[in-house]
# Entry
Amino acid sequence: HRETCIWSKRTVAAKHVNKKLLRREQVLQEIRLLQNLDHPNLVKLLDTYETASSYVLVLEMADQGRFLDYIVSWGNLTEEKVALYLRDILEALHYLHSWRIAHLDLKPENIVVEHASSQPVIKLTDFGDAVQLNPPSSYIHPLLGSPEFSAPELILGQPVSLTSDLWSLGVVTYVVLSGASPFLDESLEETCLNICRLDFSFPEDYFQGVSPAARDFICLLLRGEPERRPPAASCLEEPWLQPRSLSSSDSTLNPTQPPALSPSRNHCGAHLDTSRLISFIERRKHQNDARPIGTIKAFLHSRLLSQT
# Structure
C-alpha cells in the first residue's frame, strides 16, 4: 500500500501483516532485523504500528516500483544494464551476509527500483522470511516460499545457507535475460523436481543475443551444493559484472532516464527482448507462493532416490 506521511509530506509504503496469518513473534523478528540494517540497496524501515487486525510496517517508497515492471516500461534492456542492476542486488546480499543474515525469499517481486540522481538504484525488500544464521546453524526453512526461485536445500527441507540467496539470484538473472523461468513445469512437484535435478538449459530462442559470459554467470550460481556457489563478494569480482564507464555521449544525463553504458568485451551489446517478461509478470500476479514444504518433500525424495 502507498501512503503519505502528513508530518513529512513523504510518500511511504505500508506493509500490512494480518494477525491471523502470522504470530507476533514472527513479525517482531522481521522488525528487529530491519531496525538493525542500513544499506543503500535495502528498503528502510521508517516506523511500525498496530491496528486491531494488522501489524503495519512503514517502509521507504521506491518511486519506480517493482524491478521487472521497471525493466519492461523502460525497454532498451542490454546486458550492461542487467550487470549494473545485479551489482546493486549483490551489494545488498554482501551486506546482509556479512551480518550472517539470509534473505530466503529473493524473487522479482521483492526487488524494487528508486531513481537517485542520474541512475536507478535497485533495492531488496520484504524480510519476512529472513533469518540470522549464527554458526553452527542448521536452520530449516519451514515454508516453501517461491518454488520457482528456491534453492534445492529449501525444497528438500535441508539446512539453508547464505548461498541459498545466490541460487535465487541465479534464477532471477535467467529470468531477466530471457523472460523465461528455468525450472518452471506444469505442476509444483515437477518444478521442484527440476530444481533438485538441476534440470535447466539455455534455449536459443530465448537466449539469442545473450553472451556466453552471462550464461556462465548463471551456471556459477545454479549449483546444487550450497558450498560450491560463490559468495556475494566473489560474484562482485566476476568479469561479467564489472562496471563500465559511461559512454562519452552521455556526459549530460537525463536524471529520469537509466544511463546508457558503453559496450564491453564481456557483453553482447544487443538489446534484449523483454516481451516475454510481460506474460511472466502477469502469471506471477495470479500465483500463490506459500505452500508447506512437507507436502511435497516425501514425493521428491522418492522420485530422486528412484533415479540414483
In short: The domain at 2-60 is CATH 3.30.200.20 (Phosphorylase Kinase; domain 1). The two ends are 48 Å apart (CA to CA).
